[in-house]
Amino acid sequence: MTDFAPVPRALTIAGSDSGGGAGIQADLKTFAARGVYGMSVVTALTAQNTVGVHGVHAVPPEFVRAQLDAVAEDIGVDAAKTGMLADRAVIRAVAEGVRAHGITRLVVDPVCASKHGDALLRPDALDALRDEILPLAEVATPNLGEVLLLTGVEVRGVEGLRAAAEAMHALGPRWVLIKGGHLPDNDDAVDLLFDGAEAIEIRARREETTDTHGTGCTLSAAIAAEFAKGADVPAAVRAAKAYVTGAIRHGLRLGKGIGPLDHNWERR
Q: What percentage of the chain has pLDDT greater than the value 70?
């Protein structure tokens, strides 16, 4: 849904991270940093900090849909992203809302687990994620663990990124961005962008840091922000990758565990 507006409008549909490093909080910080107006649909509440996830409370699906309807019908949505969707009923509510409001510039971050390994998606929801959300995506941004869960393809080196991209693309998104930064042979932090025919390597210097909480959320939110401003997929992904690389480089040493990125690094 795109109407005239004085500022680009981006919507995050995701879970709340009480520690502020990931989820809705990271997405809204990213939207502000990238110069777009941020809105939110909260799908779940988490009791979370830099050490781990200590509790999850899913929002009822009818209230998830109510939030989406309220935002889209009044303010409008130029682009959106999904993050933590919690369960099958929430996934269905989000998919129905996205279709009803004609939101086509959609980034799907298929969040299945936190960086600490805590489950953020119920096992019975994987089929719904494959069947109902991924086919709506302009671009999906899975990490290698999510590729394995969703397709069964295990990537052990950079040479396996193409097979992962092909398997994910077969699930329906128009583009796929396979995040390969955790691979041991990936010194250039290569991600692979794929549209079913052309594969584009997106490179950035690997940053040696443990303060990386919220990286995936921030990347998908930054892509959505660029979509809201009118960028095409390759340009949006390149701009988002550059922004996230800087945010990782300036990561904040907060808490006792995995610290957050600095979403405001360009302005400090």
A: 94
List CB contacts of 240: < 8 A, sequence separation 6 or more: 219, 220, 222, 223, 225, 226
pLDDT at residue 240, rounded to an integer: 97
**What is the CATH class of 9-267?**
alpha beta
| Per-residue tokens: 98 | 């996205």
The whole-number pLDDT of residue 257 equals: 94
Instruction: Report yes or no: 240 and 194 within 8 Å, Cβ to Cβ.
Output: no
- In single-letter form, the type of residue at position 114 comes to S
Q: What is the mean pLDDT of the chain?
A: 92
Which residues of the chain are under the pLDDT cut of 50?
A: none
Catalytic residues: 179, 212, 214-217
For 124, which DSSP code?
G
- Using a cut of 0.85, tell me whether the model's pTM lies above it: yes
Show the tokens assigned to 51.
């050490």
184 burial (CB, 10 Å; 0-12 / 13-18 / 19+) is exposed
Q: Identify how many contiguous H helices and E strands the chain contains and give both numbers.
A: 8, 9
Question: What is the C-alpha separation between 214 and 107, in angstroms, rounded?
Answer: 16
Local structure of 118: helix, strand or coil:
coil
Amino acid 31: pLDDT: 98
Question: Token pair for residue 137?
Answer: 């995506």
DSSP string, 125-191: GHHHIIIIIGGG-SEE--BHHHHHHHH-PPP-SGGGHHHHHHHHHTTS-SEEEEB-TT-TT-TT--E
For helices 144-151 and 161-169, what crossing angle results, to 10°?
50
